[in-house]
Amino acid sequence: MISALHIKNIGIIEDINIEFNQGLNVLTGETGAGKTLIIDSLQIISGGRFSKDMIRKGEDNSFVEICMYEPESEDAVDGNIIVSREINSNGRNMCKINGRMVTVNELKKFMSKYIEIHGQNDNQNLLDEKLHLNYLDGFIGNKFENKKVDYEKLYEEYCKIKQELKNNYGDEKERQRKLDLLKYQLNEIEQANLRENEEEELAEKSKIMQNSEKIAVNLREADQAISEGAIDSISTAIRALEKIEDIDKKYEAVCSNLKSMYYELQELARDVNSYTEDVYFNEEERNNVEERLDLIYSLKRKYGNSVKEILEYQDKVRVEIEHIENLESYNNTLRKKQKDVEEKMKILTVEIHSIRQKAAQELSNKINVELEDLEMKNAKINIKVTYLENEYLKTGKDLVKFYITTNKGEDEKELSKIASGGEMSRTMLAIKKVLADSDQMPILVFDEIDTGISGKAANSVANKLSKISKKHQVMCISHLPNIAAMADYNYFISKDVNNERTKTKIKLLQENEVIEEIARISSGDINEVSLKYANELRNKKAS
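Above: the chain's sequence. Below: its structure in token form.
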């Protein structure tokens, strides 16, 4: 339940704190005092849309904070859940759940577990056809819980098999497409006949080809310098030293070293000369090298960053081709298992569908009784359960939709097509009354639910709100004395002008003040007659 609500700078609300209680909380008060702003604040804290125009004049931001006491909730800390939302004039939002920052969408999803707001334009849950099945199943209760659990287990197994078949190319077209692609890739790599280090060797050769003229010129110059200069000069020096080498050992040693250098230089000269012959390439050879490098670069773009990685991918493709070609037998086993599971699922879905169809008729009848009691005598709810022949859902094969006829002679239409917000609110009230025991929503907010009704219908609305409040915390803005009289807690909303500024005030009324407020609502004035009427209404609640 909501234990406390703090609102700051929204419309004419400057800064108020409201403590709410379990049961039926009714808010009444002056026109334009800010009652709707309190509902708007609950919508904002529930992740609803916010307009900058709602920020109090002269202020930069608005702030809403709520404390919910939900001791059995896993979201609670010491039994409490504290949620806040600050909105600045520049559009920036700051949302927090128990101090943790969240997005607006996360806030909306979180609060949808705790609060439902029903008013002129806010019956989202009732309009959401995905939740219609939840309403029906909630009404059925535990009557078919075992069947639902058994079906969900089978559905989970069914989904796993489908996913495994998909991963195993269980679809014949998909499998063949993948096989064709892998074989094409393998053939392309095999035809290239790559070898490791080939790219480096070709790149080196290409570099030499591109610089062949420069290399040739400089090799010829080096060859000439060695052959015609260095070798001849060293040869002359050796002959001179040979003439004196027997005179002293040191001359002999120098001569020997020089001879060694001479022979090494001759080897170098032969190498340089041979290099000169290697730098001449014909055009065909150049083209072959470049085409080979282009092929390697192309394969690298597709299959790896190096020849080594391409070859590794080739091995991987071979293994995958073999795997796919041998999968058919295993996939056939999976398909048989899937068929067996589907047959079991179908039996359960037929049984579940039968239960839901019967319950849909019963629920429709009960809601229609409540609608008649709410002076919607011509309105008829019809809950349709459609069996989906070719699709399995997590909840079975049923599509549940609520349809309604609001006036005699009209065709029934989807519930979302109701034009009147008051009709929508009363329809939701009728549904909530029937589902009060099974509905898990802790907090229900009704805004302007009494629009366009009086007399017997007003009494009926009041009684239903009271009964619903035995299982839920109910908050309701009302202008009817019948509803105010049924409240467990009455709050009076007023406005005050101070220093040329209007601001909202709220007060939890004592019993004598409750009687006076009921009297004011009933006749517009507090007098002996209206007070007597107020006491009579209040005594009805007590009885």
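The chain has a mean pLDDT of 84.
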